[in-house]
Design goal:
- The structure is a homodimer of 169-residue chains.
- Chain A has 169 residues and is mainly α.
- The first copy, chain A, contains seven helices and three strands; from the N terminus they run H-H-E-H-H-E-E-H-H-H.
- A three-stranded antiparallel sheet of chain A has the order 1-3-2.
- In chain A, strand 2 and strand 3 form a beta hairpin.
- The longest helix of chain A has 35 residues.
- The N and C termini of chain A lie far apart (55 Å).
- At the A-B interface, helix 1, helix 2, helix 6 and helix 7 of A face helix 1, helix 2, helix 6 and helix 7 of B.
- Chain A binds a DNA duplex (30 and 30 nucleotides) through helix 3 and helix 4.
DNA sequence: TCAGATATCTGCATTGTTAAGATAAATGCC
DNA sequence: GGCATTTATCTTAACAATGCAGATATCTGA
């Protein structure tokens, strides 16, 4: 690996390529998931909130929790839940012990009609990963898990920075 | 690798984990990039359009091209360009040979003030990838490039499906 | 001139924010 | 304990932004 370019230059190329890929993929994600959501009559925010509720810390999460992890205002979350509830995709349940809280639960059965939209892309993705060995997939998994953790902490950082700015202003 | 689980079960675990990661990361991306954009006074759509113009097929692209690759209507693109132009981030340039066309160019100098916001996350990301060998990074790069190509074709598919539906409707 | 392509404009629906308010729980003081 | 105050959670209402559909304007080339 030192025919024309040095080892360091080669590595630098890889890093640049990875960074660019990150930018490209985030752009694609924004528009792709907007389009996918639209094709089932929703928008990207709403569908992604459903995803968050599904994989939330408990089987049901509160509206406040959603506001925290998304960085959206509680007012926006209320609207989101209104829309999703009208579609029958989620239901609100008041907490009996702390009646301020509203738990939100996804109604799996109402979600199923939307799944076919996702299956086509899922199949194409499966064909892609099938070409890799277990060992390679493990490496990729671990890498993505780290990137995901990084994204999560960055978003949390931005949200808390915004909050502390609101106190001063 | 056959202590408790069979080889096949292990692989199935990996595939499920990867699929879940894809869902998690797309959700994170939607909210993270919305938050990042907001912190520089823009929105996710607008910043991502800037990104697309920067890496477009030519140094300058047309509004119609942007509409095509994003899946947004031309009306939406007009508003986006209005906002970006007002901020001085892009400029419209009429083509002299084909005067129907309006080329959009990014003004790099007006972009630079926004870069610091991205540098913190860039540094954290660099620390992450530094732990990997060249060979590993190459594998990851190639994997991501394939996923990216898949996303691009999926978005194109949705957009063209939408168009053909409009003819009938 | 006309067909087509391209870009923009207009009016409207959707989405998210801010600010205020309603209700419930927690805290503190007597 | 009982009551006032503060804090927490969610909702509402008015407004700002964003995006869409469709109409209009502009341009090219036959």
């Amino acid at each position: 690996m030192s025919t024309r370019k040095g080892r360091k230059a080669h590595r630098q190329d890889l890093l640049t390529r990875l960074w660019d890929l990150g930018r490209i993929m985030s752009t694609q994600t924004v528009f792709l998931h907007q389009a996918i959501a639209q094709s089932v009559g929703l928008n990207a925010t709403d569908t992604k909130c459903v995803d968050l509720i599904l994989r939330g810390p408990h089987e049901a999460v509160t509206a406040g929790w959603l506001s925290n992890v998304t960085g959206l205002t509680t007012g926006a979350v209320t609207h989101i839940l209104d829309r999703l509830e009208k579609r029958g995709i989620v239901e609100r349940v008041r907490d009996t012990s702390d009646r301020r809280k509203v738990f939100v639960r996804v109604r799996q059965d109402r979600l199923e009609p939307l799944i076919p939209q996702y299956e086509a892309i899922g199949k194409a993705y499966l064909r892609l990963v099938e070409e890799y060995s277990d060992k390679e997939l493990k490496l990729i998994c671990e890498y993505l898990e780290r990137v995901s953790a990084l994204s999560e902490s960055e978003l949390a950082k931005i949200i808390s920075a915004r909050r502390s700015r609101e106190y001063k202003g």
